[in-house]
Design a protein that fits this description.
255 residues, alpha+beta, two-stranded antiparallel sheet, 23% strand
Length: 255
Protein backbone atom coordinates (compact mmCIF):
# COMPACT_ATOMS: atom_id res chain seq x y z
CA UNK A 1 0.00 0.00 0.00
CA UNK A 2 2.96 2.33 0.55
CA UNK A 3 4.25 1.75 -2.96
CA UNK A 4 7.41 0.09 -1.70
CA UNK A 5 6.51 -3.04 -3.70
CA UNK A 6 4.84 -3.63 -7.06
CA UNK A 7 2.26 -6.42 -7.07
CA UNK A 8 0.55 -7.37 -10.34
CA UNK A 9 -2.36 -9.68 -11.20
CA UNK A 10 -1.68 -13.12 -12.67
CA UNK A 11 -5.13 -14.35 -13.65
CA UNK A 12 -5.09 -15.49 -17.28
CA UNK A 13 -4.31 -19.11 -18.15
CA UNK A 14 -4.76 -19.17 -21.93
CA UNK A 15 -5.21 -16.91 -24.92
CA UNK A 16 -9.01 -17.17 -24.88
CA UNK A 17 -9.89 -15.63 -21.53
CA UNK A 18 -11.78 -18.54 -19.98
CA UNK A 19 -13.96 -18.27 -16.88
CA UNK A 20 -11.81 -16.50 -14.25
CA UNK A 21 -13.75 -18.19 -11.45
CA UNK A 22 -12.70 -21.68 -12.62
CA UNK A 23 -8.88 -21.51 -12.74
CA UNK A 24 -6.88 -24.67 -13.36
CA UNK A 25 -4.15 -23.47 -11.00
CA UNK A 26 -4.62 -25.30 -7.69
CA UNK A 27 -3.95 -24.32 -4.09
CA UNK A 28 -3.39 -26.99 -1.45
CA UNK A 29 -2.45 -27.08 2.21
CA UNK A 30 -3.69 -25.48 5.38
CA UNK A 31 -3.15 -22.22 7.22
CA UNK A 32 0.33 -20.82 6.67
CA UNK A 33 1.51 -23.80 4.60
CA UNK A 34 -0.34 -23.16 1.34
CA UNK A 35 1.18 -24.28 -1.96
CA UNK A 36 0.29 -23.27 -5.52
CA UNK A 37 0.67 -25.38 -8.65
CA UNK A 38 -0.21 -24.17 -12.12
CA UNK A 39 0.63 -21.68 -14.84
CA UNK A 40 -0.42 -18.12 -15.66
CA UNK A 41 0.12 -16.37 -18.98
CA UNK A 42 0.44 -12.77 -20.22
CA UNK A 43 1.61 -11.39 -16.87
CA UNK A 44 2.99 -7.82 -16.84
CA UNK A 45 5.91 -8.89 -14.67
CA UNK A 46 8.44 -6.13 -15.41
CA UNK A 47 9.48 -4.68 -12.07
CA UNK A 48 7.00 -6.81 -10.14
CA UNK A 49 7.89 -7.92 -6.62
CA UNK A 50 4.98 -10.34 -6.37
CA UNK A 51 1.81 -11.62 -7.98
CA UNK A 52 -1.88 -11.93 -7.15
CA UNK A 53 -2.68 -15.40 -8.47
CA UNK A 54 -6.15 -16.88 -8.92
CA UNK A 55 -6.48 -20.54 -7.95
CA UNK A 56 -9.09 -23.18 -7.24
CA UNK A 57 -9.28 -24.18 -3.61
CA UNK A 58 -11.35 -26.58 -1.58
CA UNK A 59 -14.21 -24.09 -1.23
CA UNK A 60 -13.98 -22.36 -4.62
CA UNK A 61 -11.75 -19.75 -6.26
CA UNK A 62 -9.27 -17.92 -4.05
CA UNK A 63 -6.77 -15.12 -4.61
CA UNK A 64 -3.23 -15.77 -3.42
CA UNK A 65 -0.08 -13.71 -3.08
CA UNK A 66 3.18 -15.21 -4.36
CA UNK A 67 6.54 -13.48 -4.09
CA UNK A 68 8.59 -13.14 -7.27
CA UNK A 69 11.53 -15.01 -5.76
CA UNK A 70 9.49 -17.67 -4.00
CA UNK A 71 10.70 -21.24 -4.31
CA UNK A 72 8.93 -23.02 -7.17
CA UNK A 73 8.12 -19.74 -8.96
CA UNK A 74 9.69 -19.28 -12.42
CA UNK A 75 9.17 -16.67 -15.15
CA UNK A 76 9.75 -16.79 -18.90
CA UNK A 77 9.16 -13.74 -21.08
CA UNK A 78 7.79 -13.28 -24.60
CA UNK A 79 8.13 -10.21 -26.83
CA UNK A 80 4.81 -8.63 -27.75
CA UNK A 81 3.76 -6.91 -30.96
CA UNK A 82 4.14 -3.42 -29.47
CA UNK A 83 7.52 -3.84 -27.85
CA UNK A 84 6.83 -4.78 -24.25
CA UNK A 85 7.44 -8.20 -22.72
CA UNK A 86 4.82 -10.36 -21.07
CA UNK A 87 5.68 -13.29 -18.85
CA UNK A 88 4.48 -16.82 -18.27
CA UNK A 89 4.44 -17.58 -14.56
CA UNK A 90 4.96 -21.23 -13.64
CA UNK A 91 4.23 -22.39 -10.11
CA UNK A 92 5.39 -25.73 -8.73
CA UNK A 93 4.37 -26.06 -5.09
CA UNK A 94 5.16 -22.38 -4.60
CA UNK A 95 4.43 -21.01 -1.11
CA UNK A 96 1.50 -18.60 -1.05
CA UNK A 97 -0.76 -16.56 1.21
CA UNK A 98 -4.50 -16.20 0.66
CA UNK A 99 -5.81 -12.66 0.16
CA UNK A 100 -9.16 -12.31 1.96
CA UNK A 101 -11.93 -10.55 0.02
CA UNK A 102 -12.95 -7.02 0.90
CA UNK A 103 -16.07 -6.80 3.03
CA UNK A 104 -18.12 -5.41 0.12
CA UNK A 105 -16.90 -7.81 -2.58
CA UNK A 106 -18.40 -11.15 -3.55
CA UNK A 107 -15.08 -12.89 -4.14
CA UNK A 108 -11.50 -11.62 -4.25
CA UNK A 109 -10.79 -13.20 -7.66
CA UNK A 110 -13.99 -11.82 -9.16
CA UNK A 111 -13.35 -8.36 -7.72
CA UNK A 112 -9.79 -8.18 -9.05
CA UNK A 113 -10.74 -9.56 -12.46
CA UNK A 114 -13.55 -7.05 -12.94
CA UNK A 115 -11.30 -4.20 -11.80
CA UNK A 116 -8.66 -5.35 -14.32
CA UNK A 117 -11.26 -5.36 -17.11
CA UNK A 118 -12.24 -1.78 -16.30
CA UNK A 119 -8.58 -0.70 -16.09
CA UNK A 120 -7.87 -2.22 -19.51
CA UNK A 121 -10.98 -0.53 -20.90
CA UNK A 122 -9.73 2.81 -19.59
CA UNK A 123 -6.33 2.33 -21.21
CA UNK A 124 -7.95 1.32 -24.50
CA UNK A 125 -10.03 4.49 -24.29
CA UNK A 126 -6.84 6.50 -23.84
CA UNK A 127 -5.25 4.77 -26.83
CA UNK A 128 -8.25 5.68 -28.99
CA UNK A 129 -8.31 9.28 -27.77
CA UNK A 130 -4.63 9.91 -28.50
CA UNK A 131 -4.82 8.18 -31.90
CA UNK A 132 -7.75 10.46 -32.76
CA UNK A 133 -5.83 13.59 -31.71
CA UNK A 134 -2.83 12.65 -33.84
CA UNK A 135 -5.05 11.88 -36.81
CA UNK A 136 -7.11 15.07 -36.64
CA UNK A 137 -3.91 17.10 -36.44
CA UNK A 138 -2.69 15.34 -39.57
CA UNK A 139 -5.95 16.05 -41.42
CA UNK A 140 -5.42 19.76 -40.69
CA UNK A 141 -1.93 19.95 -42.23
CA UNK A 142 -1.79 17.35 -45.03
CA UNK A 143 -2.63 18.67 -48.48
CA UNK A 144 -3.69 16.74 -51.55
CA UNK A 145 -4.91 18.17 -54.88
CA UNK A 146 -4.11 21.59 -53.45
CA UNK A 147 -6.51 21.23 -50.51
CA UNK A 148 -6.27 20.14 -46.89
CA UNK A 149 -7.45 16.53 -46.78
CA UNK A 150 -9.58 17.39 -43.75
CA UNK A 151 -11.85 19.33 -46.11
CA UNK A 152 -12.80 16.14 -48.02
CA UNK A 153 -16.27 14.96 -47.04
CA UNK A 154 -15.43 11.26 -47.10
CA UNK A 155 -12.62 11.78 -44.58
CA UNK A 156 -14.86 13.97 -42.44
CA UNK A 157 -17.37 11.12 -42.27
CA UNK A 158 -14.62 8.75 -41.19
CA UNK A 159 -13.46 11.20 -38.53
CA UNK A 160 -17.03 11.54 -37.25
CA UNK A 161 -17.34 7.76 -36.98
CA UNK A 162 -14.12 7.66 -34.97
CA UNK A 163 -15.48 10.33 -32.62
CA UNK A 164 -18.75 8.43 -32.12
CA UNK A 165 -16.95 5.15 -31.33
CA UNK A 166 -14.74 6.86 -28.75
CA UNK A 167 -17.56 8.75 -27.06
CA UNK A 168 -19.75 5.65 -26.83
CA UNK A 169 -16.91 3.80 -25.12
CA UNK A 170 -16.21 6.76 -22.83
CA UNK A 171 -19.88 6.91 -21.80
CA UNK A 172 -19.87 3.24 -20.79
CA UNK A 173 -16.60 3.52 -18.85
CA UNK A 174 -17.79 6.66 -17.04
CA UNK A 175 -21.09 4.98 -16.20
CA UNK A 176 -19.24 2.12 -14.50
CA UNK A 177 -16.91 4.48 -12.63
CA UNK A 178 -19.82 6.56 -11.36
CA UNK A 179 -22.07 3.73 -10.23
CA UNK A 180 -19.81 1.00 -8.86
CA UNK A 181 -17.67 0.48 -5.80
CA UNK A 182 -14.09 -0.40 -6.76
CA UNK A 183 -14.33 -3.59 -4.67
CA UNK A 184 -17.66 -4.68 -6.10
CA UNK A 185 -17.97 -3.81 -9.78
CA UNK A 186 -20.95 -5.28 -11.59
CA UNK A 187 -19.43 -8.20 -13.59
CA UNK A 188 -21.80 -7.70 -16.53
CA UNK A 189 -20.84 -4.03 -16.80
CA UNK A 190 -17.09 -4.75 -16.58
CA UNK A 191 -17.42 -7.42 -19.26
CA UNK A 192 -19.48 -5.12 -21.49
CA UNK A 193 -16.91 -2.34 -21.17
CA UNK A 194 -14.01 -4.61 -22.10
CA UNK A 195 -15.93 -6.03 -25.08
CA UNK A 196 -16.86 -2.56 -26.30
CA UNK A 197 -13.42 -1.02 -25.76
CA UNK A 198 -11.59 -3.97 -27.35
CA UNK A 199 -13.69 -3.83 -30.52
CA UNK A 200 -13.76 -0.06 -30.88
CA UNK A 201 -10.06 0.47 -30.18
CA UNK A 202 -9.10 -1.82 -33.04
CA UNK A 203 -11.60 -0.16 -35.38
CA UNK A 204 -10.48 3.36 -34.41
CA UNK A 205 -6.74 2.74 -34.67
CA UNK A 206 -7.14 0.96 -38.01
CA UNK A 207 -9.18 3.87 -39.33
CA UNK A 208 -6.56 6.33 -38.07
CA UNK A 209 -3.85 4.51 -40.01
CA UNK A 210 -6.02 4.58 -43.13
CA UNK A 211 -6.58 8.34 -42.76
CA UNK A 212 -2.82 8.84 -42.62
CA UNK A 213 -2.45 7.15 -45.99
CA UNK A 214 0.84 5.52 -46.92
CA UNK A 215 2.82 7.18 -44.12
CA UNK A 216 0.55 5.49 -41.57
CA UNK A 217 1.86 2.08 -42.61
CA UNK A 218 5.50 2.94 -41.95
CA UNK A 219 7.30 1.91 -38.78
CA UNK A 220 8.67 5.44 -38.48
CA UNK A 221 5.28 7.07 -37.87
CA UNK A 222 3.94 6.76 -34.32
CA UNK A 223 0.32 6.13 -35.31
CA UNK A 224 1.13 2.46 -35.88
CA UNK A 225 2.18 2.12 -32.24
CA UNK A 226 -1.38 2.83 -31.15
CA UNK A 227 -2.76 0.03 -33.29
CA UNK A 228 -0.17 -2.36 -31.84
CA UNK A 229 -1.01 -1.32 -28.29
CA UNK A 230 -4.73 -1.76 -29.04
CA UNK A 231 -4.04 -5.24 -30.43
CA UNK A 232 -2.32 -6.27 -27.21
CA UNK A 233 -4.72 -4.67 -24.73
CA UNK A 234 -7.81 -5.92 -26.54
CA UNK A 235 -6.58 -9.52 -26.23
CA UNK A 236 -5.61 -9.44 -22.54
CA UNK A 237 -8.10 -11.29 -20.28
CA UNK A 238 -10.08 -12.20 -23.40
CA UNK A 239 -10.90 -10.29 -26.58
CA UNK A 240 -14.28 -8.86 -27.58
CA UNK A 241 -15.65 -12.24 -28.71
CA UNK A 242 -14.58 -13.93 -25.46
CA UNK A 243 -16.13 -11.15 -23.40
CA UNK A 244 -19.43 -11.48 -25.27
CA UNK A 245 -19.51 -15.20 -24.45
CA UNK A 246 -18.88 -14.36 -20.79
CA UNK A 247 -21.58 -11.70 -20.86
CA UNK A 248 -24.13 -14.27 -22.06
CA UNK A 249 -23.07 -16.66 -19.29
CA UNK A 250 -23.29 -13.96 -16.61
CA UNK A 251 -26.64 -12.72 -17.93
CA UNK A 252 -28.05 -16.26 -17.80
CA UNK A 253 -26.91 -16.65 -14.19
CA UNK A 254 -28.64 -13.44 -13.11
CA UNK A 255 -31.80 -13.91 -15.20
Amino acid sequence: MTGAAVVVPALQENAYGDDPLAPRTRVAGEGGALRLTGQKMFVCADGADGFLVSASGRDGPVLCYVGRRAQGCTLSTTQTVEGRKLATLKLADAPADIIPPHASSRNAVDALYNLALVALSCELLGVMEKAKEITLDYLRIRKQFGKLIGSFQALQHQAANIYIRIEATRSLVFQIAANNDAYCIDPAMAIAAKAKASEEALAVTQACIQLHGAIGFTDEHEIGLYLKRAMLLSSLFGNAAAQRRRYVAVANLTA
